[in-house]
Amino acid sequence: MSASNTDDTPETINYIGFNQDSKIISVGHKEGYMFYKTADILENSTLTCEGQSLNHLGLNNCLIIERLFSSALMVVISQKDPRVLHVYHFTSKNIICDHRFNKSILTVRLNRDRIVVCLEDCIYIYNLKDMKMMHNIMDTPMNKLGVVDLTSKPGNALIAYPGSTDTGSVHLFDAINLSSVNTFVAHEGTLACLKFNQDGNMIATASTKGTVIRVYSVPTGTRMFEFRRGVSRCVTIYSLCFSCDSKYLASSSNTETVHVFKLEKPEGDDKPEAANESAGWFDTINKTISAYMPTQVLQVSEFMTTERSFATAKLPGATRTNQVALVSNKNQQYVMAATSDGFVYAYRLDPEGGELDLIKQHRIGPKTESCRISPLGTGGKSSDSNQTVPNMDDPDDFPPMSHTSG
């Protein structure tokens, strides 16, 4: 996500996002990056952060900042050359390795096993231990939005990305065994957003129309839930996020409303196998008829099965972009929205739903005075290319490596 940059406007923020477990907010700006702990946002009246200027490395205008959980390992994509992936250790101020591609990098996802790099027409998979390329998925359907996600659970690395440019099909790929897993149609229109839950057994999807959000089981692709985001007008879905217990799903868009959906089966769903068989029979008939008149059947099906949002949170206004997360803190769920105009808002998720109350608001980004910005260092590339990453649970145990791909 790139943007113009001036000293007097919030467009100095190029990138904003939550890490894999929603414990960290990452901000990329014209000189470097900042990290904020979501627990601090909820508990402290004055917000502090960690951050560095990367001008000494020539990495000004950070377009993408992705951090591996709460470790010191992160990746940086700079406007200087958006085709280069920089893997960076921010404690030692060392670039571990660079990888150059023939097109701009649109999205990067990390877990403890893999780094996934998405270009508009292919996806590259790297082994986190030694930063070597494991596989490249070539000639993927054109994906100019960079729609992709990676499961975060250890030992599990499923990638989801659009399987078609004509329909909203989802393709699942196993990044550990390097093999295709499944393809299923999630929407009639093309995909705009998708997101795994933390266990990697569910995925939420939204199309470019943005009116209906669906949840599917992974890897089978069986539809589990279907929700109508709001009124029928089309919107652009910016982000989707599950709660850590997968009981809630939140979505944000180019409107000022954040929607929260409750993931629970309707009463009576647990009972009868006969009812489930009947529902399965109806679904089979529905799919058969859909082959002949898909648009009409889809509209009737959505009318019959979709549910409205369980709760909503109101942002002060629409922004250029935003990201939403469901954060658990001291046995309480919160909805947190970070916006490109330099604010983060926290709302307490009431068990009864409804319109949620704003309980915290903080300024974030390069204009915040409380952020501890590290001074310019002398970080550079290490010449030791044989080291690996022995302990990814230790934030300080990421020895530098040097590896550059052409």
TrEMBL record:
State if Repeat is listed as a keyword: yes
Q: Where is this region: Disordered?
A: 369-406
Return the InterPro entries for the record.
PROPPIN (IPR048720), WD40/YVTN_repeat-like_dom_sf (IPR015943), WD40_repeat_dom_sf (IPR036322), WD40_rpt (IPR001680)
SMART domains, from UniProt? Answer: WD40
One GO CC term of this entry?
Answer: phagocytic vesicle
Q: List the keywords (alphabetical).
A: Autophagy, Repeat, WD repeat
Key word Lipoprotein present: no
- MF terms in GO: phosphatidylinositol-3,5-bisphosphate binding; phosphatidylinositol-3-phosphate binding; phosphatidylinositol-4-phosphate binding; phosphatidylinositol-5-phosphate binding
Q: Which residues form a coiled coil?
A: none
Q: Which Pfam families match?
A: PROPPIN
Q: Write out the GO biological process terms.
A: apoptotic cell clearance; cellular response to toxic substance; dauer larval development; determination of adult lifespan; embryo development ending in birth or egg hatching; embryonic morphogenesis; germ cell proliferation; germ-line stem cell division
Family membership noted in the UniProt record: Belongs to the WD repeat PROPPIN family.
Q: What is this protein called?
A: CRE-ATG-18 protein
Species the sequence originates in:
Caenorhabditis remanei (Caenorhabditis vulgaris)
Give the gene symbol.
Cre-atg-18
